[in-house]
Amino acid sequence: MTDENPYQPWIAKIISIKEEASGERAIKTFRLEFQDEEVKKKFTFLPGQCIMISVFGTGESMFAISSSPTQKDYIEVSVMRYGKLTKALHLKEEGDLVGARGPYGNSFKVDEWKGKNILFLGGGIGQAPLRSVINYCKDNRKDYGKIDIVYGARTSRDLCYKDEFAEMSKKDDLSIHLSIDVEEEGWDQFVGFVPDNLKRLNPSPENTIAITCGPPIMIKFVIQNLLELDFKEDQVYTTLEMRMKCGIGICGRCNIGNLYVCKDGPVFSYDQIKDIQGDM
Amino acid sequence: MEQLTLPKEKLPELLGEIGSKFELIGPKEENGFLAFRKINDPKEVNLDILLSRVPPKSLIFQQTETLFTYAKGKDSKIQTPKIDESVRVIFGIRPCDARGYDIIDPVFMGKKEGDYTDPFYTKKRNRSILIGLSCNEPDTNCFCTSFDDSPANSKHVDILFTDIGGTYFVEIVTEKGEDLIKNLSKIFSKATEKEGTIRKETEKTAIKAISRKMNTEGAVEKLNKMFEHEFWIEAARSCIGCGICTYLCPTCHCFDMQDESTLKLGGRVRVWDSCMYEEYTHHASGHNPRPSRMNRVRNRVYHKFNYFPKNDGIFGCTGCGRCIDYCPVNIDIIEVIDKVKEVNV
């Protein structure tokens, strides 16, 4: 990502690691700090944009930046342990160095949405890009109307950012609606899938933008339910995912139809993608 | 455009001189196939075989290339290898293969503000002077004329040589070509009007010798309407997924990036990849957007005849015929497009 070589990452230090979820689908949030002061100063991004993280010797993968651009001292990525690279990243400790290059892709239109209500609908690790927007809105709270966060995971153990939600619902003017898929002892919030929680909450589409991120099957039913609630297609935003290598629109693999998710995405409004022809 | 001639027997002298001043790459026979290689002795150059098996895209977009090196551990240090920028002459490139560069230039070099530029491709492209060679006797599966191209098109090279019988007709097309000629001894003569006429006749004869035609008219629009058509299952039935059509294609530009390392040192290496492989789009989650041959064959055809036109206003095909020549199960892209046109939607 140097001026001469877009493939060359900068060195970033893992300054802290927070375990968000444990077990088989472990999720950790890595807080990274660029080692080069110049890079640290000039690296800016918008909510929704992505970053390529390298573990030298293993490779690199693209992640949504899960911290908000309002936080300028560091960037965070929340990573579920799943494949080769994420497994290697989960073995890293505080103080270890990784590579990072970006930011890549388009972003959520947080500027255009000033004055509107924002409805977040997240599932599992899909909450990571939403967290960036949520924190952005929280830090610019007066610019936005009502903010609702609907978030669910398989079990309470799989829910990310639990303590942050607890803090937010106390201090900031945000409504948080958590859910888990199956009943658990001691769980006093909604039990069921995110699309059902959405139906139960029955939000008004008036002056509202809905953003959804999560497993494809969840996105499908969330969008279906939003449309039933009279949300217009251009009021609904989501992100698309594909395997990536270069991240800069050259290596060819992340195309859905003639669009490259790495540079034309990852953020799309539903009216942009509803008729898209491509393998997803 | 300056028009010169060079007696054929003087070609070794010319190549010798170029080789003494610059790096010289040319077509050379290797294991029964033609390949673009560094030329040390003009005698090595083979102009009898029409097309190299691997297209000369490999000279600009290398099959493997180290993008940067690193030291692992607490003092990670990353370095980009130095990219050679000295002048290099590529002799004997065919017009269609040179056009291949024109097609993928915007992919690697960017076309609008904000696009990234690949320095490895760009620097190799800029350091290369192309001396093209017209095809007097096109092959069975040549169809460059389907793309408004010609076997003697000078547009894609810096200098074009056309064999007009005993003599090469030499056209200096670009400033780069002019500069090169200025640097060489005066072994060229000014072309006469008659020689110019012979050159035009030679081109006409060559065009007539091309028997295959791809019917691209309306293909983009037709493909828009048939993504979900069962035709693709049929079109992919015989494909064995070997990927040769993509590796040997002058416009295929997909690559993978892999780390190669010891415990302490390593590098990230770019290697050609192919959308014909299952793993190419395989997500870590196990989900694969293109799980079957049908999806992958369809993607290849769409990329060349629908996505390239939509994104760059040009078909991603030069008509070189390699994918037809080398396909082990005789999938013929011209026939595929013909059948696309016949499908009822």
How would you describe this protein?
The complex is a heterodimer of chains A (280) and B (345). Chain A is an alpha/beta fold. Chain A contains eight helices and 15 strands. The radius of gyration of chain A is 18 Å and the shape is globular. In chain B, the strands form two sheets. In chain B, strands 3-2-6-7-8-9-1-10 form an eight-stranded mixed beta sheet, sandwiched between helices. In chain B, α3 packs antiparallel against α4. Chain B is globular. At the A-B interface, β4, α2 and β13 of A face β4, β11, β12 and α10 of B.
List the helices and strands and how they pair.
The complex is a heterodimer of chains A (280) and B (345).
Chain A: E1 10-21, E2 27-34, H1 37-42, E3 50-55, E4 59-64, E5 75-80, H2 84-90, E6 97-104, E7 117-123, H3 127-139, E8 147-153, H4 162-171, E9 175-180, E10 190-191, H5 194-201, E11 208-213, H6 216-228, E12 236-239, E13 255-256, E14 259-260, H7 261-264, E15 267-269, H8 270-273
Parallel strand pairs in A: 7-8, 7-11, 8-9, 9-10, 11-12
Antiparallel strand pairs in A: 1-2, 1-6, 2-5, 3-4, 3-6, 12-15, 13-14
Helix pairs in contact in A: 5-6
Chain B: E1 2-7, H1 11-21, E2 23-30, E3 33-38, H2 57-60, E4 64-71, E5 78-79, E6 88-93, H3 95-109, H4 119-127, E7 128-133, E8 159-163, E9 167-172, H5 175-182, E10 189-190, H6 193-208, H7 219-224, H8 231-235, H9 244-247, E11 255-261, E12 265-272, H10 293-312, H11 322-326, H12 333-342
Parallel strand pairs in B: 2-6, 6-7, 7-8
Antiparallel strand pairs in B: 1-9, 1-10, 2-3, 4-5, 4-12, 8-9, 11-12
Structure summary:
The complex is a heterodimer of chains A (280) and B (345). Chain A folds into 2 domains: 10-104, Translation factors (Elongation Factor Tu (Ef-tu), domain 3); 117-239, Nucleotide-binding domain of ferredoxin-NADP reductase (FNR) module (Rossmann fold). In chain A, 23% of the residues lie in helices and 30% in strands.
